[in-house]
Structure prediction request, 288 residues.
Amino acid sequence: MNSKRSLICLVVLSCLASALNGQVIAPVESSISYTTIDYPGACSTAVSGINSAGDIVGTYQTTLGGQSHGFKLSGGQFTSFDYPGAQSTSAAGINDSGLIVGYEDSNSFTYDGSTFTLVSFPGYYDTIAGGINNAGDIVGTLNLGVRAFEFSGGQYHIIHIPSTNRYQGGSGINNFGHITGYRINNGYQGFLDKSGKFRFFQISNSTVPFGLNDSDIVVGYYSDGATNTGFALLNSKYISLNFPNSYFTSASGINNAGQVVGVYSDGLNAPEHGFITSPITSADFEKN
Prediction:
């Protein structure tokens, strides 16, 4: 199962007051259009990443609960890929050179369209990538969300997130090396890490970020205990993302043009669909 979708399914928590290091998080009204993305012939599609050229990656299944396959959508053409010998393959992100990061049964990989390269943190039984930047730096989670990691310059590093709880993870990295991810602290709480300086945020008690762009616009989802809603957040303001008439919506990635991608479902246990939005920019967060 796609790890981003797994987090959506795992979190069912009550709503708390919103805060960002003591600052109130304020909602912003914005007019956003949505376009559905479905892999041809698939019963379930989730979109997880988008680069500056508008190339998109994601994961699809041809039967519910069946094998997962990665895909790339570029210039209107879908291409499927599977990690050799793996039971499942999921895509997590794509950078501007077209390098894809994803994960198979228990480890991660990069894929340039012809060659897979294993990404596996030594000493841990699973390595699940969340995002990649143009330098090829990768962030993700270890041991089912026990630790967050960064792979940079050919070296693996633990991201030391201030937390008393052992469950934490990295999910996105931009071209300035800023990292977003989560920790559990009275519910799932998001963070933005700029060179070791952490800012934590909660829109509700379940707030899980998945990606960010070079403007530090963070995207993910939050839960009020009944529904999951996507968000785009900049500093102390956020925009809610709801695919029209959907049961849940979660944002997974954003490029520097502000196009957001993610996943939505029409109902409980209904198939999932990918989506892409019209661009969101920093100016959208100053409208009110």
About this structure: The chain has one domain: 3-286. The two ends are 39 Å apart (CA to CA). The helical segments are 3-10.
